[in-house]
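Entry:
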Amino acid sequence: MAIQTPIAPPRDEQEAVVSWRIERLLAAGYDGESAVVLALDRDVDLHEAVSLLERGCQVETALQILF
């Protein structure tokens, strides 16, 4: 039985995804540093991060919830 390893997307694609995530987080109201940290962490659910601010959560509180 052959072991299959996931193939990582090309670096350019990964960078494009991170850039898109940063843009979405900035548009939602996160400051630049927080947006970058959140965007780089693949365990952070982008939709949840955006939703927290849309529901009136402060950035500091949202970061505590997400991490």
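The CA atoms of residues 22 and 36 lie 6 Å apart.
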